[in-house]
From TrEMBL:
Alphabetical list of Pfam families matching this protein: Aminotran_5 (PF00266)
The protein's name: phosphoserine transaminase
Family under the similarity heading: Belongs to the class-V pyridoxal-phosphate-dependent aminotransferase family. SerC subfamily.
CDD domains: PSAT_like
GO-annotated molecular function: O-phospho-L-serine:2-oxoglutarate aminotransferase activity; pyridoxal phosphate binding
PANTHER family: PHOSPHOSERINE AMINOTRANSFERASE
UniProt lineage: Eukaryota, Viridiplantae, Streptophyta, Embryophyta, Marchantiophyta
Keyword vocabulary terms for this entry: Amino-acid biosynthesis, Aminotransferase, Pyridoxal phosphate, Serine biosynthesis, Transferase
Length: 444
Protein backbone atom coordinates (compact mmCIF):
# COMPACT_ATOMS: atom_id res chain seq x y z
CA UNK A 1 0.00 0.00 0.00
CA UNK A 2 1.20 3.50 -0.83
CA UNK A 3 0.11 6.58 1.11
CA UNK A 4 -0.38 9.65 -1.03
CA UNK A 5 -1.68 13.11 -0.35
CA UNK A 6 -4.58 14.09 -2.54
CA UNK A 7 -6.99 16.96 -2.66
CA UNK A 8 -10.42 16.56 -1.18
CA UNK A 9 -12.04 16.58 -4.61
CA UNK A 10 -10.04 13.54 -5.70
CA UNK A 11 -11.25 11.64 -2.68
CA UNK A 12 -14.83 12.75 -3.19
CA UNK A 13 -14.64 11.72 -6.83
CA UNK A 14 -13.36 8.30 -5.90
CA UNK A 15 -16.21 7.99 -3.46
CA UNK A 16 -18.76 9.11 -5.99
CA UNK A 17 -17.43 6.41 -8.30
CA UNK A 18 -18.09 3.80 -5.69
CA UNK A 19 -21.58 5.20 -5.01
CA UNK A 20 -21.30 4.12 -1.38
CA UNK A 21 -20.06 7.26 0.36
CA UNK A 22 -19.70 6.69 4.06
CA UNK A 23 -19.28 10.27 5.10
CA UNK A 24 -19.68 13.64 3.51
CA UNK A 25 -16.45 15.55 3.89
CA UNK A 26 -18.32 18.83 3.56
CA UNK A 27 -20.11 18.18 6.81
CA UNK A 28 -17.11 17.20 8.89
CA UNK A 29 -17.64 18.19 12.48
CA UNK A 30 -14.57 16.72 14.13
CA UNK A 31 -11.11 17.94 13.15
CA UNK A 32 -10.06 14.56 11.87
CA UNK A 33 -12.17 11.79 10.45
CA UNK A 34 -11.55 8.64 8.52
CA UNK A 35 -13.39 7.96 5.28
CA UNK A 36 -13.67 4.64 3.54
CA UNK A 37 -15.00 3.73 0.20
CA UNK A 38 -14.51 1.10 -2.45
CA UNK A 39 -12.55 2.00 -5.56
CA UNK A 40 -12.20 -0.32 -8.50
CA UNK A 41 -13.55 -3.15 -6.34
CA UNK A 42 -11.04 -2.61 -3.51
CA UNK A 43 -11.26 -0.43 -0.43
CA UNK A 44 -9.99 3.14 -0.48
CA UNK A 45 -9.21 4.73 2.85
CA UNK A 46 -8.90 8.44 3.38
CA UNK A 47 -8.42 10.46 6.51
CA UNK A 48 -9.22 14.16 6.46
CA UNK A 49 -7.96 16.92 8.63
CA UNK A 50 -9.23 20.48 8.87
CA UNK A 51 -6.24 22.82 9.05
CA UNK A 52 -5.58 26.52 8.61
CA UNK A 53 -4.24 27.26 5.14
CA UNK A 54 -0.91 29.08 5.20
CA UNK A 55 -1.42 32.78 4.68
CA UNK A 56 -5.18 32.53 5.18
CA UNK A 57 -7.23 34.56 7.61
CA UNK A 58 -7.45 33.28 11.19
CA UNK A 59 -10.41 30.95 11.50
CA UNK A 60 -10.57 29.94 7.83
CA UNK A 61 -10.04 26.21 7.52
CA UNK A 62 -9.21 23.97 4.58
CA UNK A 63 -9.81 20.24 4.51
CA UNK A 64 -6.84 18.13 3.49
CA UNK A 65 -7.20 14.42 2.91
CA UNK A 66 -4.68 11.65 2.73
CA UNK A 67 -5.81 8.65 0.75
CA UNK A 68 -4.24 5.23 0.92
CA UNK A 69 -4.56 3.64 -2.46
CA UNK A 70 -4.34 -0.16 -2.35
CA UNK A 71 -1.56 -1.50 -4.56
CA UNK A 72 -4.05 -3.30 -6.81
CA UNK A 73 -5.51 0.02 -8.04
CA UNK A 74 -2.17 1.52 -9.02
CA UNK A 75 -1.91 2.76 -12.59
CA UNK A 76 0.05 -0.32 -13.56
CA UNK A 77 -2.58 -2.80 -12.49
CA UNK A 78 -5.44 -0.78 -14.04
CA UNK A 79 -3.46 -0.87 -17.33
CA UNK A 80 -4.07 -4.53 -17.76
CA UNK A 81 -7.14 -5.17 -15.61
CA UNK A 82 -9.94 -4.91 -18.11
CA UNK A 83 -12.43 -6.41 -15.73
CA UNK A 84 -11.85 -3.67 -13.14
CA UNK A 85 -14.38 -1.55 -15.03
CA UNK A 86 -17.95 -1.39 -13.79
CA UNK A 87 -21.11 -0.91 -15.82
CA UNK A 88 -21.60 2.78 -15.22
CA UNK A 89 -25.21 3.91 -15.63
CA UNK A 90 -24.46 7.54 -14.67
CA UNK A 91 -26.38 10.32 -16.39
CA UNK A 92 -23.20 12.31 -17.00
CA UNK A 93 -20.29 12.41 -16.87
CA UNK A 94 -20.96 8.98 -18.21
CA UNK A 95 -19.37 5.84 -19.50
CA UNK A 96 -17.08 6.12 -22.53
CA UNK A 97 -16.29 3.34 -25.00
CA UNK A 98 -13.61 1.11 -23.41
CA UNK A 99 -11.50 1.17 -26.58
CA UNK A 100 -11.57 4.99 -26.58
CA UNK A 101 -10.36 5.13 -22.98
CA UNK A 102 -7.59 2.68 -23.84
CA UNK A 103 -6.61 4.69 -26.91
CA UNK A 104 -6.43 7.83 -24.77
CA UNK A 105 -4.29 5.88 -22.32
CA UNK A 106 -1.97 4.69 -25.08
CA UNK A 107 -1.67 8.26 -26.42
CA UNK A 108 -1.40 9.87 -23.03
CA UNK A 109 2.34 10.08 -22.52
CA UNK A 110 3.43 10.68 -26.09
CA UNK A 111 0.70 11.51 -28.59
CA UNK A 112 1.45 9.80 -31.89
CA UNK A 113 5.20 10.36 -31.69
CA UNK A 114 4.93 14.10 -30.99
CA UNK A 115 6.94 13.65 -27.80
CA UNK A 116 4.19 15.16 -25.63
CA UNK A 117 0.73 14.45 -24.37
CA UNK A 118 -2.33 16.28 -25.72
CA UNK A 119 -2.55 17.94 -22.29
CA UNK A 120 0.77 19.64 -22.93
CA UNK A 121 0.29 20.83 -26.50
CA UNK A 122 -0.14 24.40 -27.66
CA UNK A 123 -3.67 24.82 -28.91
CA UNK A 124 -2.21 26.66 -31.89
CA UNK A 125 0.40 24.04 -32.75
CA UNK A 126 0.03 21.81 -35.80
CA UNK A 127 -0.63 18.72 -33.65
CA UNK A 128 -3.68 20.11 -31.86
CA UNK A 129 -4.94 21.83 -35.00
CA UNK A 130 -4.98 18.43 -36.71
CA UNK A 131 -6.93 17.02 -33.73
CA UNK A 132 -9.64 19.68 -33.62
CA UNK A 133 -10.00 19.81 -37.41
CA UNK A 134 -10.42 16.04 -37.66
CA UNK A 135 -12.92 16.07 -34.77
CA UNK A 136 -14.99 18.68 -36.58
CA UNK A 137 -14.75 16.89 -39.94
CA UNK A 138 -15.82 13.57 -38.40
CA UNK A 139 -18.74 15.19 -36.58
CA UNK A 140 -19.82 16.79 -39.85
CA UNK A 141 -19.73 13.38 -41.51
CA UNK A 142 -21.64 11.70 -38.68
CA UNK A 143 -24.45 14.27 -38.51
CA UNK A 144 -24.30 15.19 -42.21
CA UNK A 145 -23.96 18.82 -41.14
CA UNK A 146 -24.65 21.14 -44.09
CA UNK A 147 -22.00 23.63 -45.24
CA UNK A 148 -24.04 26.60 -44.05
CA UNK A 149 -23.58 25.59 -40.40
CA UNK A 150 -20.66 26.32 -38.08
CA UNK A 151 -19.49 23.76 -35.53
CA UNK A 152 -18.15 25.31 -32.33
CA UNK A 153 -16.32 23.58 -29.48
CA UNK A 154 -16.93 25.82 -26.46
CA UNK A 155 -16.75 25.81 -22.67
CA UNK A 156 -19.19 26.63 -19.90
CA UNK A 157 -21.41 23.60 -20.40
CA UNK A 158 -24.85 23.46 -21.90
CA UNK A 159 -25.96 25.72 -19.04
CA UNK A 160 -24.00 28.66 -20.45
CA UNK A 161 -25.90 28.29 -23.72
CA UNK A 162 -29.12 28.99 -21.83
CA UNK A 163 -27.85 32.59 -21.69
CA UNK A 164 -25.80 32.66 -24.90
CA UNK A 165 -28.70 31.66 -27.14
CA UNK A 166 -31.06 34.54 -26.28
CA UNK A 167 -28.11 36.93 -26.16
CA UNK A 168 -27.11 35.94 -29.71
CA UNK A 169 -30.54 35.60 -31.29
CA UNK A 170 -32.71 38.26 -29.62
CA UNK A 171 -32.94 41.86 -28.63
CA UNK A 172 -34.36 42.41 -25.12
CA UNK A 173 -37.72 43.21 -26.78
CA UNK A 174 -37.88 40.04 -28.87
CA UNK A 175 -40.01 37.09 -27.81
CA UNK A 176 -38.66 33.56 -27.66
CA UNK A 177 -40.95 30.56 -27.15
CA UNK A 178 -40.11 27.69 -24.83
CA UNK A 179 -41.66 24.25 -25.02
CA UNK A 180 -40.82 22.94 -21.58
CA UNK A 181 -40.95 19.16 -21.23
CA UNK A 182 -38.65 18.67 -18.24
CA UNK A 183 -36.23 20.18 -15.76
CA UNK A 184 -33.56 21.24 -18.28
CA UNK A 185 -35.97 22.96 -20.62
CA UNK A 186 -37.35 24.78 -17.60
CA UNK A 187 -33.86 26.02 -16.67
CA UNK A 188 -33.31 27.27 -20.20
CA UNK A 189 -36.67 29.10 -20.09
CA UNK A 190 -35.91 30.76 -16.73
CA UNK A 191 -32.44 31.90 -17.78
CA UNK A 192 -33.70 33.38 -21.06
CA UNK A 193 -36.06 35.68 -19.13
CA UNK A 194 -33.00 37.79 -18.27
CA UNK A 195 -32.21 38.55 -21.90
CA UNK A 196 -35.47 38.56 -23.88
CA UNK A 197 -39.21 38.10 -23.49
CA UNK A 198 -39.32 34.39 -22.80
CA UNK A 199 -42.74 32.90 -23.33
CA UNK A 200 -43.92 29.55 -22.04
CA UNK A 201 -45.55 27.92 -25.07
CA UNK A 202 -46.12 24.67 -23.27
CA UNK A 203 -45.19 23.16 -19.93
CA UNK A 204 -45.46 19.51 -19.04
CA UNK A 205 -45.07 20.33 -15.34
CA UNK A 206 -48.71 19.61 -14.33
CA UNK A 207 -48.27 16.08 -15.72
CA UNK A 208 -44.88 15.76 -13.95
CA UNK A 209 -43.11 15.90 -17.31
CA UNK A 210 -44.15 12.42 -18.39
CA UNK A 211 -45.48 13.36 -21.81
CA UNK A 212 -44.90 15.60 -24.82
CA UNK A 213 -47.41 18.08 -26.22
CA UNK A 214 -49.48 17.54 -29.34
CA UNK A 215 -49.22 20.31 -31.97
CA UNK A 216 -52.49 21.83 -30.75
CA UNK A 217 -51.22 22.12 -27.18
CA UNK A 218 -48.24 24.28 -28.21
CA UNK A 219 -49.06 27.99 -28.18
CA UNK A 220 -46.46 29.66 -30.38
CA UNK A 221 -46.09 33.43 -30.51
CA UNK A 222 -46.35 34.92 -34.01
CA UNK A 223 -43.01 36.55 -34.78
CA UNK A 224 -41.11 34.79 -32.00
CA UNK A 225 -37.36 34.86 -32.67
CA UNK A 226 -36.80 31.22 -31.77
CA UNK A 227 -38.50 28.19 -30.28
CA UNK A 228 -36.52 26.18 -27.75
CA UNK A 229 -36.91 22.51 -26.97
CA UNK A 230 -34.88 20.04 -24.96
CA UNK A 231 -34.68 17.05 -27.31
CA UNK A 232 -34.13 14.59 -24.47
CA UNK A 233 -34.88 15.41 -20.85
CA UNK A 234 -32.15 13.62 -18.92
CA UNK A 235 -33.94 13.63 -15.57
CA UNK A 236 -37.46 12.68 -16.62
CA UNK A 237 -36.54 10.43 -19.58
CA UNK A 238 -38.81 12.10 -22.16
CA UNK A 239 -37.48 12.29 -25.73
CA UNK A 240 -38.83 14.00 -28.83
CA UNK A 241 -39.22 11.42 -31.62
CA UNK A 242 -40.38 14.06 -34.10
CA UNK A 243 -39.71 17.75 -33.77
CA UNK A 244 -42.48 20.35 -33.55
CA UNK A 245 -43.34 22.35 -36.63
CA UNK A 246 -42.43 25.93 -35.75
CA UNK A 247 -43.13 27.59 -39.08
CA UNK A 248 -40.68 30.38 -39.85
CA UNK A 249 -39.26 30.55 -36.33
CA UNK A 250 -35.79 29.24 -35.59
CA UNK A 251 -35.87 25.86 -33.86
CA UNK A 252 -33.23 25.55 -31.14
CA UNK A 253 -32.57 22.22 -29.44
CA UNK A 254 -30.65 21.19 -26.37
CA UNK A 255 -29.39 17.74 -27.37
CA UNK A 256 -27.01 17.29 -24.44
CA UNK A 257 -28.26 13.84 -23.54
CA UNK A 258 -29.01 12.37 -26.96
CA UNK A 259 -26.29 13.99 -29.06
CA UNK A 260 -25.07 11.57 -31.74
CA UNK A 261 -27.35 8.80 -30.48
CA UNK A 262 -29.26 8.76 -33.78
CA UNK A 263 -29.35 10.59 -37.11
CA UNK A 264 -30.75 14.14 -37.00
CA UNK A 265 -31.80 16.39 -39.87
CA UNK A 266 -29.64 19.35 -38.86
CA UNK A 267 -31.23 21.59 -41.49
CA UNK A 268 -34.44 21.72 -39.42
CA UNK A 269 -32.62 23.59 -36.67
CA UNK A 270 -31.09 27.02 -36.25
CA UNK A 271 -28.99 25.82 -33.32
CA UNK A 272 -28.27 22.39 -31.88
CA UNK A 273 -26.19 22.36 -28.73
CA UNK A 274 -25.09 19.90 -26.11
CA UNK A 275 -22.63 19.28 -23.32
CA UNK A 276 -20.53 16.31 -24.42
CA UNK A 277 -20.22 14.54 -21.09
CA UNK A 278 -22.97 12.04 -21.78
CA UNK A 279 -22.59 10.53 -25.23
CA UNK A 280 -19.44 12.09 -26.61
CA UNK A 281 -16.59 12.73 -24.21
CA UNK A 282 -15.36 14.01 -20.88
CA UNK A 283 -16.92 17.07 -19.24
CA UNK A 284 -15.52 20.41 -20.37
CA UNK A 285 -16.85 20.86 -23.90
CA UNK A 286 -20.18 22.06 -25.21
CA UNK A 287 -20.73 21.68 -28.93
CA UNK A 288 -22.82 24.31 -30.72
CA UNK A 289 -23.95 23.72 -34.30
CA UNK A 290 -25.29 27.02 -35.60
CA UNK A 291 -26.64 28.19 -38.97
CA UNK A 292 -24.23 30.79 -40.32
CA UNK A 293 -26.85 33.46 -41.02
CA UNK A 294 -27.62 33.61 -37.27
CA UNK A 295 -24.15 34.88 -36.41
CA UNK A 296 -23.37 38.53 -35.83
CA UNK A 297 -26.51 39.81 -34.08
CA UNK A 298 -25.48 39.46 -30.45
CA UNK A 299 -26.78 42.04 -27.99
CA UNK A 300 -24.11 44.74 -27.45
CA UNK A 301 -23.43 43.78 -23.84
CA UNK A 302 -22.90 40.09 -24.73
CA UNK A 303 -19.67 38.91 -23.14
CA UNK A 304 -17.10 38.20 -25.84
CA UNK A 305 -16.89 34.61 -24.69
CA UNK A 306 -20.63 34.18 -25.33
CA UNK A 307 -20.57 35.67 -28.82
CA UNK A 308 -20.89 32.84 -31.34
CA UNK A 309 -19.54 35.03 -34.16
CA UNK A 310 -16.24 35.52 -32.33
CA UNK A 311 -15.87 31.77 -31.83
CA UNK A 312 -16.86 31.00 -35.42
CA UNK A 313 -14.35 33.52 -36.83
CA UNK A 314 -11.65 31.99 -34.66
CA UNK A 315 -12.54 28.35 -35.39
CA UNK A 316 -13.16 27.71 -31.66
CA UNK A 317 -9.65 29.00 -30.84
CA UNK A 318 -10.44 32.52 -29.69
CA UNK A 319 -9.09 31.50 -26.30
CA UNK A 320 -7.53 28.29 -25.04
CA UNK A 321 -10.04 25.52 -25.68
CA UNK A 322 -10.37 22.38 -23.53
CA UNK A 323 -7.83 20.52 -25.64
CA UNK A 324 -7.85 17.14 -23.99
CA UNK A 325 -11.66 16.75 -23.85
CA UNK A 326 -11.89 17.84 -27.51
CA UNK A 327 -9.30 15.19 -28.39
CA UNK A 328 -11.36 12.51 -26.59
CA UNK A 329 -14.51 13.67 -28.44
CA UNK A 330 -12.53 13.13 -31.64
CA UNK A 331 -11.70 9.57 -30.60
CA UNK A 332 -15.41 8.94 -29.93
CA UNK A 333 -16.41 10.34 -33.35
CA UNK A 334 -13.81 8.09 -34.97
CA UNK A 335 -15.18 5.14 -33.08
CA UNK A 336 -18.79 5.93 -34.04
CA UNK A 337 -17.82 6.14 -37.70
CA UNK A 338 -15.96 2.84 -37.48
CA UNK A 339 -19.08 1.27 -36.00
CA UNK A 340 -21.33 2.28 -38.88
CA UNK A 341 -22.27 5.86 -38.02
CA UNK A 342 -25.43 7.14 -36.37
CA UNK A 343 -27.89 4.82 -38.13
CA UNK A 344 -26.09 1.86 -36.59
CA UNK A 345 -25.83 3.66 -33.24
CA UNK A 346 -29.59 4.22 -33.24
CA UNK A 347 -30.23 0.52 -33.94
CA UNK A 348 -28.04 -0.47 -31.02
CA UNK A 349 -29.71 2.10 -28.78
CA UNK A 350 -33.21 0.90 -29.71
CA UNK A 351 -32.20 -2.67 -28.97
CA UNK A 352 -30.77 -1.80 -25.54
CA UNK A 353 -33.67 0.45 -24.54
CA UNK A 354 -36.22 -2.18 -25.63
CA UNK A 355 -34.58 -4.77 -23.38
CA UNK A 356 -35.04 -2.47 -20.42
CA UNK A 357 -38.54 -1.16 -21.17
CA UNK A 358 -39.73 -4.72 -21.95
CA UNK A 359 -38.40 -5.86 -18.58
CA UNK A 360 -40.32 -3.05 -16.88
CA UNK A 361 -43.53 -3.76 -18.80
CA UNK A 362 -43.23 -7.50 -18.19
CA UNK A 363 -42.85 -7.12 -14.42
CA UNK A 364 -46.57 -7.04 -13.57
CA UNK A 365 -46.18 -3.61 -12.07
CA UNK A 366 -43.22 -4.46 -9.84
CA UNK A 367 -41.25 -1.89 -11.87
CA UNK A 368 -43.03 1.16 -13.29
CA UNK A 369 -41.86 3.73 -15.81
CA UNK A 370 -43.86 6.94 -15.41
CA UNK A 371 -43.22 8.14 -18.97
CA UNK A 372 -45.86 7.76 -21.69
CA UNK A 373 -44.76 4.88 -23.93
CA UNK A 374 -44.47 6.74 -27.23
CA UNK A 375 -42.02 9.34 -25.88
CA UNK A 376 -39.76 7.18 -23.73
CA UNK A 377 -36.10 8.09 -24.00
CA UNK A 378 -33.61 5.72 -25.60
CA UNK A 379 -30.95 7.23 -23.35
CA UNK A 380 -32.33 7.72 -19.82
CA UNK A 381 -34.71 5.12 -18.44
CA UNK A 382 -36.34 6.08 -15.14
CA UNK A 383 -38.34 3.57 -13.16
CA UNK A 384 -39.81 3.19 -9.71
CA UNK A 385 -40.68 0.39 -7.31
CA UNK A 386 -43.24 0.14 -4.57
CA UNK A 387 -41.18 1.89 -1.89
CA UNK A 388 -38.05 4.04 -1.73
CA UNK A 389 -36.56 1.42 0.60
CA UNK A 390 -36.92 -1.25 -2.07
CA UNK A 391 -35.33 1.08 -4.63
CA UNK A 392 -32.42 1.75 -2.28
CA UNK A 393 -31.90 -1.98 -1.79
CA UNK A 394 -31.97 -2.54 -5.55
CA UNK A 395 -29.40 0.19 -6.14
CA UNK A 396 -27.17 -1.28 -3.42
CA UNK A 397 -27.47 -4.78 -4.83
CA UNK A 398 -26.66 -3.50 -8.32
CA UNK A 399 -23.55 -1.71 -7.04
CA UNK A 400 -22.41 -4.90 -5.33
CA UNK A 401 -22.64 -6.57 -8.75
CA UNK A 402 -20.63 -3.83 -10.49
CA UNK A 403 -23.55 -1.78 -11.85
CA UNK A 404 -23.22 1.74 -10.49
CA UNK A 405 -24.87 5.17 -10.49
CA UNK A 406 -28.44 3.92 -10.82
CA UNK A 407 -30.00 6.35 -8.37
CA UNK A 408 -32.64 8.62 -9.92
CA UNK A 409 -31.98 12.37 -9.94
CA UNK A 410 -32.37 13.87 -6.47
CA UNK A 411 -35.35 15.93 -7.65
CA UNK A 412 -37.43 12.92 -8.71
CA UNK A 413 -36.02 9.89 -6.85
CA UNK A 414 -36.52 6.34 -8.07
CA UNK A 415 -34.04 4.52 -10.27
CA UNK A 416 -32.57 5.81 -13.53
CA UNK A 417 -30.48 3.80 -15.94
CA UNK A 418 -28.63 5.99 -18.40
CA UNK A 419 -27.75 3.81 -21.35
CA UNK A 420 -25.87 6.11 -23.69
CA UNK A 421 -24.08 4.97 -26.85
CA UNK A 422 -21.14 3.57 -24.90
CA UNK A 423 -23.17 1.36 -22.55
CA UNK A 424 -22.63 -2.16 -23.89
CA UNK A 425 -25.67 -4.37 -24.48
CA UNK A 426 -24.12 -6.78 -21.95
CA UNK A 427 -24.49 -4.08 -19.29
CA UNK A 428 -28.21 -3.72 -19.97
CA UNK A 429 -28.63 -7.50 -20.04
CA UNK A 430 -26.94 -7.76 -16.67
CA UNK A 431 -29.24 -5.08 -15.26
CA UNK A 432 -32.31 -6.85 -16.64
CA UNK A 433 -31.12 -10.13 -15.07
CA UNK A 434 -30.84 -8.39 -11.71
CA UNK A 435 -34.30 -6.85 -12.12
CA UNK A 436 -35.74 -10.33 -12.66
CA UNK A 437 -33.95 -11.98 -9.74
CA UNK A 438 -34.69 -9.03 -7.45
CA UNK A 439 -38.37 -9.23 -8.32
CA UNK A 440 -38.50 -12.98 -7.61
CA UNK A 441 -36.81 -12.42 -4.26
CA UNK A 442 -39.25 -9.68 -3.26
CA UNK A 443 -42.53 -10.97 -4.65
CA UNK A 444 -44.32 -13.15 -2.18
N1 LIG B 1 -29.25 20.09 -20.67
C1 LIG B 1 -29.42 18.79 -20.42
C2 LIG B 1 -30.45 18.04 -21.21
C3 LIG B 1 -28.65 18.16 -19.46
O1 LIG B 1 -28.83 16.86 -19.20
C4 LIG B 1 -27.67 18.90 -18.76
C5 LIG B 1 -26.76 18.27 -17.73
N2 LIG B 1 -27.17 17.17 -17.11
C6 LIG B 1 -27.55 20.25 -19.04
C7 LIG B 1 -28.35 20.82 -20.00
C8 LIG B 1 -26.54 21.10 -18.32
O2 LIG B 1 -25.31 20.74 -18.80
P1 LIG B 1 -23.95 21.30 -18.20
O3 LIG B 1 -23.77 20.63 -16.89
O4 LIG B 1 -22.95 20.89 -19.23
O5 LIG B 1 -24.08 22.77 -18.08
Amino acid sequence: MAAISVSLSVVQEAMALSSVPVCNAGSLKSPSVAMRSSFGGTRLKASCLKTRASGSAPGSLVTRCTATVPASTSAKSIDTANDARVYNFAAGPATLPANVVKQAQADLFNWRGSGMSVMEMSHRGKEFLSIIQKAEADLRTLLKIPENYEVLFLQGGASSQFSAIPLNLCTPEDTADFIVTGSWGDKAYKEAQKYCKANLSFTGKPGKYTNLPSESEIKLTPGAKFVHICANETIQGVEFKEYPNVGDAILVADMSSNFCSKPVDVSKFGIIYGGVQKNIGPAGVVIVIIRKDLLGNAQPQTPTMFDYKIHAENKSLYNTPPCFPIYVCGLVFDDLLAQGGLEAAEERNIEKASLLYDAIEGSNGFYKCPVEKSVRSLMNVPFTMQTPELEAEFIKEAAAQGMVQLKGHRSVGGVRASIYNAMPKAGVEKLVALMKSFQSKHSS
